[in-house]
Design brief:
Oligomer: single chain
Order of helices and strands: HHHH
Number of strands: 0
Radius of gyration: 26 Å
Structural class: mainly alpha
Strand content: under 5%
Shape: rod-shaped
């Protein structure tokens, strides 16, 4: 009888250890999956921002050369919307600290694009005084957007590094 009890206890201990090992492995695999998803989304945000910056640069060049702008303004708007989709609530796998700075980036880029749109319209209106004010606003909005991108990059890096320690 004692031998049976000892065998039963050993089997129970082994079953608990196996269950803990399986649960630990499942947690590890889930964490790895979340980290991979976060890397993909964070990379997609950076790519979308880079595409927007490229479109804004082309628009800036066209403004300086007084070239055709309608297509470039549309491209900028398309890139702005793409960035908004990439940062959208269904795309962001968290955590909240990254979500918050990503939303701040969207707000800053929206303001930056709006200032550029205003700049694209003004030269035709021939308002040089107002044009200087809009150029200042564009420069300020650019700085805000770049600061938000830096904050997002830092938050993403912190999350990924912190997860790597766990």
């Amino acid at each position: 009888m004692a031998g049976f009890r000892a065998a039963k206890q050993s089997a129970e201990v082994a079953a608990r250890a196996l269950a803990e090992q399986v649960a630990g492995q499942a947690r590890y695999e889930r964490e790895q999956w979340v980290r991979q998803e976060q890397r993909q989304v964070y990379g997609a945000i950076n790519r979308a921002y880079a595409e927007l910056a490229t479109a804004l640069s082309a628009l800036h060049t066209a403004l300086a050369e007084c070239g055709p702008m309608q297509e470039l303004v549309e491209r900028v708007e398309e890139r702005r919307l793409r960035l908004s989709v990439v940062v959208g609530p269904t795309a962001m796998p968290g955590p909240e600290e990254v979500d918050d700075v990503a939303r701040a980036l969207i707000g800053a880029t929206d303001a930056f694009v709006a200032a550029y749109r205003e700049l694209a319209v003004l030269p035709r209106a021939d308002e040089s005084v107002r044009l200087d004010a809009v150029r200042e606003r564009v420069a300020g909005r650019r700085a805000d957007a770049h600061a938000c991108l830096s904050n997002l990059s830092a938050a993403c890096r912190n999350v990924l590094l912190r997860q790597g320690d766990s």
